[in-house]
Amino acid sequence: MARHELRPVVKLRSTAGTGFTYVTRKNRRNDPDRMVLKKYDPVLRQHVDFREER
Question: What domains appear along the chain, each with residue ranges and CATH number?
Answer without folding.
Answer: 2-53 (2.20.28.120)
